[in-house]
Design a protein that fits this description.
Length: 144
C-alpha cells in the first residue's frame, strides 16, 4: 500500500462555518493529494446526508459513498484539526479525517485511526498539537 498519510495532508485550521465546509476542506486535501477525483467530494457530502460520520472524541471521518469508489485513484487520508469546534449535528468536532479507500483498504485505515482516537491521552495530544508537523508525528502510527 502506498503512503496513505503524507505530511502535507495534515493541516491546522482556525474554524469551519459548518460540517459541509469541513467536509469540503478534507475533500480538497484528498483531491490535491491526487488520491481522488473532484466528484468524490460530492460523494462525501452525499454520504453525510445519509448517515453521520461523527465518531465521538471530537472526531468525524467523512468518506464517499460506495458508488464513488471509481473516483478513488489510491487509498489516502487527510486530517484537518480545527481550533474551534465544528457543529456536527449537535456534536463538537475538532478533528476531521477525510478518507478514501481502494477496495476494502479503507477498513484497515479506519481501524488504525480508531486506535489513536480510542485513547483519550492521544486525542488530547492531537487537540493540543501546535503544528502540522507535531500532528503528523502523532498520527504516524496510522501510516505504519
Amino acid at each position: 500500500m502506498s503512503e496513505v498519510l503524507a505530511p502535507g495532508d495534515v493541516v491546522l485550521a482556525e474554524s469551519a462555518d459548518s460540517k459541509e465546509e469541513a467536509i469540503r476542506d478534507a475533500g480538497r486535501l484528498l483531491v490535491a493529494a491526487g488520491a481522488v477525483e473532484e466528484s468524490y467530494v460530492d460523494a462525501m457530502l452525499e454520504r453525510e446526508r445519509t448517515i453521520s460520520t461523527y465518531m465521538g472524541n471530537h472526531l468525524a471521518i467523512p468518506h464517499g459513498t460506495d458508488d464513488a469508489k471509481r473516483a478513488i485513484r489510491r487509498s489516502a487520508l487527510c486530517l484537518v484539526r480545527y481550533d474551534e469546534p465544528v457543529d456536527w449535528d449537535g456534536n463538537p468536532v475538532r478533528v476531521v479525517v477525510g478518507i478514501a479507500g481502494v477496495g476494502d483498504e479503507h477498513l484497515e485505515i479506519l481501524s488504525r485511526i480508531a486506535l489513536v482516537f480510542a485513547d483519550t491521552d492521544q486525542v488530547q495530544r492531537v487537540l493540543d498539537a501546535s503544528s502540522s508537523a507535531e500532528l503528523y508525528a502523532i498520527l504516524q502510527a496510522v501510516n505504519e
